[in-house]
Design a protein that fits this description.
- The structure holds two protein chains of two kinds.
- By secondary structure, chain A is mostly helical.
- Chain A has one domain: Orthogonal Bundle (ABC transporter involved in vitamin B12 uptake, BtuC), CATH 1.10.3470.
- Helix content of chain A is 74%, strand content 3%.
- Chain A is built from 14 helices and four strands.
- In chain A, the strands form two sheets. In chain A, strands 1-4 form a two-stranded antiparallel sheet. In chain A, strands 2-3 form a two-stranded antiparallel sheet.
- In chain A, α6 packs across α11.
- The longest helix of chain A has 32 residues.
- The radius of gyration of chain A is 22 Å and the shape is globular.
- Chain B is of the alpha/beta class.
- Chain B folds into two domains: 211 residues, 3-Layer(aba) Sandwich (Rossmann fold), CATH 3.40.50.2300; 125 residues, 3-Layer(aba) Sandwich (Rossmann fold).
- A seven-stranded mixed sheet of chain B has the order 9-8-10-11-12-17-18, with helices on both faces. A six-stranded mixed sheet of chain B has the order 3-4-2-5-6-7, with helices on both faces.
- The chains are: A mainly alpha, B alpha/beta.
- At the A-B interface, α3, β1 and α13 of A face β9, α7, α8 and α9 of B.
C-alpha cells in the first residue's frame, strides 16, 4: 500500500485534484442553479436552441480543420479567413445591392442561392490559392513551418480584406421571409435558427457521404492514410489535397452565409474567433474525425450558451456570461484530461500525432 | 619669434571671447522632469493616439480631424509650426500600451491628444505619465481615469465629460422623462462601458428605480441571446442600457428584438455608438433607440468656422461626436505651450513639469465645448449631456 502511494507522481496528484475541483464546481453550480431555478422554461429552450445553432456553425467550420489535419497533419489557422472572405464579398457585392433594389425580398430563395454560390466560390478560390502558394511548397518541410505559415496567411487575408472593403462593420440585410419565430410542438424557435440547424445537418450528412461513398472521397481517405502508398496506387496526391481544401472551404462558406443570416453583421475580423472556436471544437471531438468535428462543435456551442447560466448562476458569480469562453475552454481541458484523443478520436499512431 | 606666438595667443583669446559673446549664457533646464528644446525652424511636435482602425474608426478619425483643424487654425506658436504624429490606440489595452511606448520613445514629442477609448487610456496614461509627458484625452469618459484611488496618473487630463455625469443623466432621463421604473445594464468589461453602466445602475436605483440585472458580455462576442435571455428572465426590464461599442452593440440591438420578453423593452446605448457606422450596424432594429452623449449643440463663431473647415477639408459633416473636444484639447495644450515656453533666440525650451502644472491650472478657458476648467485630477470638461433618438436613420436630439 505504502509502495503504491510512493509511485504516485506529484504531477498526477495535482491533475487529479484539478479534475476533482472542476467537477465539484460544475456539479455544485448546476445543482444550486436548478434549486434556485432563476429562469423560466422559455429561457432555457431559447438558450439551448441558440447553443445548437451556434454549435452547428462551429461544426461546419471545424470540418475544414479536421479534413486538412487528417490529410496533411497541419493545423490550417487561415481557415477562419476562408469563412470570412466569402461572406464579406457576397454581402458587399450581392446582399446589400439586392436589398436596396428590393430584389432580396421579392426573390428570397433565388437571392439566397446566388449569395451562397458567390460565397462558396470566393471561399474556395481563396483556399485553393492559399494552398497552392503558401502550403504546397512546404509540404515536405518540418511540421512547425506550415503551421507558422498558416498563421501568417491568416493575418494576410484579414488585412487584405480590410484593405479591400474597409474596417467598418458591414450590415447584412434581414430577409423578410426569415424574420420572426415559429412554434414547433410548443417550442418557439427563431426561423433563422431552424435554417441554420437544418442546413448544417444536411451539409454534414452530405459531406460524410461524399468522403465515405464516392471515389474522390476514397482518394482523400487514401491520401490521409499514407501519401506515398496512395501515390504508388496511382492517386494524384496534389489533386486530393486541393479537393480537401476546397471541400473544407465550401463548408466554411456555407457557415459564413448561415452566420450572416443569423447575426446580420459582417466584419473583416469576424473569422478569427469562430476559427479558434472551431479548431477547439475539432480537437474536442477528436481531430481528423468528421463526426467528431460535428459533435465537438455542437458540444462547444452548447457549453458556451447554456454553461454560464447553468454552472455559474447558482454560484452567485456576477455577470456569468462574460465567462463563457472560460467555461468552453475549461470543458476542453476536462475532456482532454480524460480522453486525450477527443470524444470520437482514435488513438493516433506515433507518425500522425 | 616671441612676437609671433604672442599674436597667435592674442588672436585665440579674442576669438574665444567672440564665440562666448555669440553663444550667450547656455540654457539650463531646471524642470524636475526635463525639458524639450526646439531649435530654429524645428516644428513643435505633438502626437495623437486615437482609434483609427477597426470598427470604431469613425470615433477616432473624427477626433483626429479636430486636432488637425486646431493645428491649422493655430498656425504658429512663437514662430514654430506644429507637427502632428498620428498613432492608433486600437481601442484596446494592448493598442494603448503600444501607442504609448512608441510616443515616449520619441523625446521630441511634447504632449499627446488621446486616447479615444478609456480601455486604451488606462495603460497609456501610465506609460506616458511615467515618461514625464502630458496627455489630454478628447473622449475618455471612464470615471476611473480621473479617480486618484483607481487609474489616475499625473499628466493625464481630459476635455471629455466624466461618465459620472453621463450615467446619471441617462438614469434621470429614463426615470423622469420615459417614466420607466425597472432597468437592466450590460457592459463588455471595458473600463468605459463598465464605468458608465455602473454609474447608470447606481443613479437609477438612487432615484427610486429597480435594476433587475447588471451583467456583461465579452468584446468580440456575437451570440448575445443567452445573456439577453438571462436579462429577460430577471425582469423583463422596461429599459435596457448597453453603453458598448459598435460591433457588440449591433449584435445586442438586433438580437434583443428576437428574445422573448424583450420585444417591448426600450433600448438605449451611449456615445460609443453615435456614428454612421453604428447606424448601419443596428439597422432597422435600432429604430427608436435612445443614445446618451455629449450635448453637441455648440454655438459661437469659432464653432461655425470649425464646422465649415471640417466640411471643406474632409468632405463630410462630422462623422462622430468628439471632434470639438479634440479641438479644445489641442488648443489647451497650445495655450500652455505659449505660456511656459522659454524663448532663447530662435529656439524655445519647454519644461515638461511646467507644462503639466499649466495644464492642470487651466481655468476659464473658452473652448467650443464650453468653459474649460481643470481640477487637480484632470477633469476639465464643461459637461453637458443630451439624449438623442434614432429616427429613420438619423440621430435626433430630444433631451434636454
Amino acid at each position: 500500500m505504502l509502495r503504491r502511494l510512493q509511485d504516485v507522481n506529484v504531477l498526477d496528484l495535482v491533475l487529479w485534484v484539478f479534475r476533482a475541483v472542476i467537477i465539484v464546481i460544475v456539479v455544485w453550480g448546476t445543482i444550486a442553479t436548478l434549486i434556485e431555478n432563476p429562469y423560466p422554461a422559455q429561457t432555457w429552450t431559447e438558450t439551448i436552441v441558440a447553443g445548437i445553432a451556434q454549435g452547428s456553425l462551429y461544426a461546419l467550420i471545424a470540418i475544414g480543420y479536421t479534413l486538412v489535419y487528417g490529410v496533411l497533419f497541419m493545423i490550417n489557422f487561415a481557415h477562419g479567413e476562408f469563412f470570412m472572405s466569402g461572406i464579406m464579398t457576397a454581402t458587399i457585392f450581392l446582399a446589400q445591392p439586392m436589398s436596396e433594389t428590393g430584389f432580396l425580398d421579392n426573390y428570397p430563395v433565388l437571392s439566397l442561392l446566388l449569395i451562397t454560390i458567390v460565397t462558396m466560390t470566393v471561399s474556395v478560390a481563396i483556399a485553393l490559392l492559399t494552398e497552392r502558394v503558401a502550403y504546397r511548397p512546404l509540404r515536405k518541410a518540418p511540421r512547425l513551418v506550415p503551421l507558422i505559415t498558416a498563421i501568417g496567411a491568416s493575418f494576410f487575408w484579414q488585412y487584405f480584406f480590410r484593405g479591400l472593403y474597409g474596417s467598418e462593420v458591414k450590415p447584412f440585410p434581414q430577409l423578410a421571409s426569415l424574420a420572426g419565430k415559429v412554434s414547433l410542438g410548443g417550442i418557439v424557435i427563431l426561423k433563422t435558427h431552424i435554417v441554420v440547424i437544418v442546413a448544417a445537418i444536411l451539409m454534414l450528412i452530405g459531406l460524410y457521404g461524399f468522403v465515405m461513398r464516392t471515389k474522390t472521397g476514397k482518394s482523400i481517405r487514401a491520401v490521409a492514410e499514407n501519401k506515398d502508398v496512395a501515390a504508388l496506387m496511382g492517386i494524384d496526391v496534389d489533386r486530393a489535397v486541393s479537393i480537401t481544401f476546397a471541400v473544407g472551404a465550401s463548408m466554411a462558406g456555407i457557415a459564413g452565409v448561415l452566420y450572416a443570416i443569423v447575426f446580420r453583421q459582417v466584419h473583416f475580423f469576424m473569422g478569427f474567433i469562430p476559427g479558434i472556436k472551431a479548431f477547439t471544437a475539432a480537437v474536442l471531438g477528436g481531430i481528423g474525425s468528421i463526426p467528431g468535428a460535428a459533435l465537438g462543435g455542437l458540444f462547444l456551442g452548447m457549453f458556451e450558451s447554456v454553461g454560464p447560466g447553468l454552472f455559474l448562476e447558482g454560484l452567485g458569480i456576477p455577470a456569468p456570461h462574460q465567462l463563457k469562453d472560460v467555461i468552453a475552454f475549461t470543458m476542453l481541458v476536462l475532456v482532454l484530461i480524460f480522453r486525450p484523443q477527443g470524444i470520437l478520436g482514435e488513438r493516433l499512431a506515433e507518425e500522425k500525432a | 619669434m616671441i612676437k609671433r606666438s604672442f599674436i597667435i595667443v592674442g588672436l585665440l583669446v579674442i576669438a574665444s571671447m567672440a564665440l562666448a559673446a555669440c553663444g550667450g549664457p547656455a540654457f539650463e533646464c531646471e524642470d524636475p522632469i526635463g525639458c524639450v528644446t526646439y531649435g530654429p525652424d524645428e516644428p513643435i511636435r505633438i502626437a495623437s493616439a486615437l482609434v483609427i482602425s477597426g470598427p470604431n474608426t469613425d470615433l477616432g478619425t473624427d477626433s483626429q480631424y479636430g486636432v488637425e483643424i486646431a493645428i491649422d487654425f493655430k498656425g504658429e506658436i512663437l514662430g514654430h509650426s506644429v507637427e502632428l504624429q498620428a498613432e492608433d490606440d486600437g481601442c484596446s489595452a494592448e493598442g494603448g500600451q503600444a501607442a504609448g511606448q512608441k510616443i515616449v520613445s520619441d523625446p521630441t514629442i511634447l504632449a499627446v491628444v488621446g486616447t479615444s477609448c478609456s480601455g486604451a487610456g488606462v495603460p497609456m496614461s501610465e506609460v506616458v505619465s511615467e515618461a514625464g509627458y502630458a496627455m489630454v484625452s478628447p473622449s475618455n469618459t471612464a470615471p476611473a481615469l480621473t479617480d486618484p484611488d483607481q487609474a489616475f496618473n499625473p499628466g493625464y487630463l481630459r476635455t471629455a465629460h466624466n461618465d459620472k455625469v453621463q450615467g446619471k443623466a441617462m438614469a434621470e432621463f429614463a426615470f423622469n422623462v420615459l417614466g420607466v421604473t425597472s432597468a437592466a445594464a450590460i457592459h463588455d468589461g471595458d473600463p468605459y462601458t463598465e464605468g458608465l453602466a455602473r454609474v447608470f445602475a447606481d443613479s437609477f436605483e438612487e432615484i427610486g428605480g429597480t435594476i433587475v440585472e447588471f451583467t456583461a458580455v465579452n468584446k468580440g462576442d456575437t451570440d448575445m441571446r443567452p445573456v439577453l435571455s438571462a436579462v429577460a428572465a430577471a425582469g423583463p426590464p422596461e429599459f435596457l442600457y448597453y453603453p458598448v461599442f459598435t460591433a457588440e452593440g449591433g449584435f445586442l440591438t438586433k438580437q434583443a428584438k428576437e428574445v422573448t420578453g424583450l420585444e417591448n423593452t426600450i433600448l438605449a446605448a451611449a456615445d460609443g455608438m453615435i456614428s454612421d457606422a453604428a447606424i448601419e450596424a443596428v439597422g432597422e432594429a435600432g429604430e427608436g433607440m435612445y443614445f446618451s452623449g455629449p450635448d453637441l449643440s455648440f454655438s459661437g463663431s469659432v464653432y461655425e468656422d470649425f464646422i465649415a473647415t471640417y466640411e471643406e477639408k474632409y468632405g463630410a459633416k462630422p462623422i462622430s461626436v468628439f471632434h470639438a473636444h479634440a479641438f479644445d484639447a489641442a488648443n489647451m495644450i497650445f495655450a500652455c505651450v505659449e505660456e511656459v515656453a522659454v524663448q532663447d533666440g530662435d529656439s524655445i525650451h519647454i519644461g515638461r513639469q511646467a507644462l503639466r502644472t499649466c495644464l492642470y491650472a487651466t481655468s476659464g478657458f473658452e473652448g467650443i465645448t464650453g468653459t474649460i476648467t481643470c481640477n487637480e485630477y484632470g477633469d476639465c470638461a464643461d459637461p453637458k449631456i443630451s439624449v438623442s433618438q434614432l429616427n429613420s436613420g438619423a440621430y435626433e436630439r430630444i433631451w434636454p
